[in-house]
Amino acid sequence: MCDVESYIYMPLLEETGYMPKNKYSTGKEIRMHLERIAAKYGLTDRVWFRTRMDECIWDDDKKEWVMKLAELVHGGKEHEAVTVTSRFVILTTGLMLVPQVPRIKGIEKFTGDCFHPARWDYNATGGTPDDPSMTRLRAKKVGLIGTGASAIQILPELAKWAKEVYVFQRTPSAVAARYNRQTDEDLFKNEIANKSGWWEARCLNYCAHVNNHNPKPALDLVNDSWTNMPSYSAISGSPGYDPKTLQEIQKYYAYLEELDLKRQSKVRGRIDDLVKDPEVAAKLKPWYSGWCKRPCFHDEYLDAFNNPSVHLVDTDGRGVQEITENGVVVEGEHFDIDVLVLSTGYKSPFLYSPPGRVGIKVLGRNGTDLDAKWSSGVTTLHGMMSHDFPNMFWPGFIQGGGNPNYTFIAEQAAKQFAYIVATGAKETRSKASSDKRYEYNFTIEATEDAEEKWAQKIVSQAHMFGASAGCTPSYINAEGEFENVRDPEKLARMARTSIWGKGQEDYNNILRAWRENGRHEGVEIKSV
């Protein structure tokens, strides 16, 4: 179940007229809504499902991208590779797609069922995506490694069905209430979806609170645990504060810590209120800044530990020691396990380029490797395009705007892509081309100067995120990898992987102003 409000997370609600069933939607409902969108816009027959892109190479003579694809069939087998060409490529590779499996000693020896939540094995548990009745676990001991955003959703369901559940915890999550509830139809129509443009306005209101605007809007439209966590601006940016000197920066960090202390104290107090065993409650308490790990929100997770069949195995930050053929070892103690769920997260998006996150090899003009360019120091225009990679776009995040609602980030990027391509078509429509294969015969590319200037703006705001230094391992700091960097050159390159330091709305305003001035500064458009 999603922990971002469905009224702002689910896209195109205005256009489809759909009303989400609850304040927070299930994966099934989100999937059905995507099918609704695809049907409305005639996309269903244009999607090539179960197909992986392996490489994408720019042909500078023909001014097109040449892609090698592999179509997957049942059982993971592949058909022969297929080559396709396109004038434009948009890399919507998301943020966290590649499951992360821990390198635990002996993990390959385990003989029971073992899987990552991203590849849930219903053959092992029973049930289906439509019917989560995990009847095959009734006589099983289940091990759940991890206590992050996925695990907190999994545990309450496992507790309903499994004979025993052992939760192996490295670092406790800060779990606030979600307060999910059914959508009131009258309220939705009269107070939420009551005017044109309501969806974007609600998203902006949400960002104003999450990004800790100063001042904030008087009315908090979403009013949930996200919008009541202004300290999250420590990693999402804020337009309300602009510290310059070392003293001002230190004062700003102290201010964030003060905000967070109040919030984390409430989170710990909630644990005492809900978990009956004081020893278990103590081990579930997060003693770190709330922005260090992805904040979690759930209404049943903590109460699951009151179930006598649920056992918390706290590893005191060290993690699981070893996995055997039939169990898990922590501090020399062996726990017999029949089914092992590796709720261990995903690879950090901050370590890879957009195609690199999913293993796509991208070579631009003159064979320039996007991963190599990324690792040597990220340069983009607005976090969406890069020099030597004509007609290729991606919806930001790194060097772009930041907020927990990625749908809004993608929606703003889509506006920008549409404007850029439409501008290219308008400026080149009077120029004939001999290539009749494509409707659009032009290239669009960021200039070197423009992308370097944008990168420097990103670097100049990187201090806005300095309060996150010293955090516990998570995807936010690449499982602690960033904490170990001391080399000045590497630190300078890391600063380029930041997001826009002044929050999502300020970033949106920059994009809108760029479009409205009509000069497409920093972008070259050429007929082909």
TrEMBL record:
GO function terms (MF aspect): flavin adenine dinucleotide binding; N,N-dimethylaniline monooxygenase activity; NADP binding
Pfam short name (any one): FMO-like
Keyword Cell division belongs to the record: no
Keyword Oxidoreductase set for record: yes
Cofactor field: FAD
Keywords: FAD, Flavoprotein, Monooxygenase, NADP, Oxidoreductase
Family according to the record: Belongs to the FAD-binding monooxygenase family.
Protein name (record): Cyclohexanone 1,2-monooxygenase
Gene source species: Fusarium oxysporum f. sp. cubense (strain race 1) (Panama disease fungus)
